[in-house]
Amino acid sequence: MERISIKPEANLLATVEFAASRIRSALKKVQGLGKMLMGRLLLTLALAATACDGFKFMTNWKAPTLQGIRDQKIAAEKFGDKKLVVITGTSSGLGRKTAAALLNTGQYHVVGAVRDLDKMELVAELDGFDPKDFTAMHCELANYTSVREFCDNLNEFKAAKPIDRLICNAAVYQPSLPYAKWSVDG
């Protein structure tokens, strides 16, 4: 802080005005410093709040369990580094060709969700699907109970392996029927 020296020959009024102007400028500096400190404080609080929000994704993290570790080991033994693909309607048409194309790459384990397991076994044999890389499972898409059972069986089968691709291919197209065909569930 500067010292103000008063000269005896100067006009007293001018000296007081000079001193007042210096005090005002010092106060402005102090107020500016206060505003700067307040701005820094607000910035720090904003960053802290952002950092807290930034870690919200961790709230759903769970500690590994022995069952989870066992499932991961089973999945690694069963699938290795191959991706898991589920294809509906694999016993004919595009589903059959898609399964063959994916299996030929050697990068996928394909689960074929089909209505007729006997037909799928025959197709798998004809197309040369490797049983280590292809699994057929029953799923009647027109029956909710069958779909739920398929999902339960698939979850048990895949252990901790995530499903990497889901190809919903199955369909029945019968425009020549004279009446509407309804599923068991309506």
Describe the structure.
With 186 residues, the chain is an alpha/beta fold. It folds into two domains: 11-55; 79-167, Rossmann fold. The chain is 52% helix and 12% strand. The protein contains five helices and four strands; from the N terminus they run H-H-E-H-E-H-E-H-E. It has helices at residues 12-54, 66-79, 93-105, 117-127, 144-158, and strands at residues 83-88, 108-114, 134-138, 163-167. A four-stranded parallel sheet has the order 3-2-1-4, with helices on both faces. Helix 4 (117-127) links the parallel strand 2 (108-114) and strand 3 (134-138). The radius of gyration is 37 Å and the shape is elongated. The chain starts with 11 loop residues before the first helix and ends in a 19-residue tail after the last strand.
Keywords:
186 residues, alpha/beta, elongated
In terms of DSSP E residues, the strand content is 5-15%
CA radius of gyration: 37 Å
Low-confidence stretches: none
Count of individual helical segments: 5
Sheet with the most strands: spatial strand order: 3-2-1-4
Helix content: 40-55%
Query: What is the CATH architecture assignment of the largest domain?
Result: 3-Layer(aba) Sandwich
The CATH superfamily label of the largest domain reads NAD(P)-binding Rossmann-like Domain
Overall shape: it is elongated
List the domain count as a whole number. 2
**How many β strands by DSSP?**
4
Mean pLDDT: 82
Examine the coordinates and then state which fold CATH places here, giving the name of the CATH topology of the largest domain.
Answer: Rossmann fold
**Elements, N to C (H/E):** HHEHEHEHE
End-to-end separation: 89 Å
CATH class of the largest domain, named Alpha Beta
Q: How is the main sheet built?
A: 4 strands, parallel
Structural class based on helices, strands and sheet pairing = alpha/beta
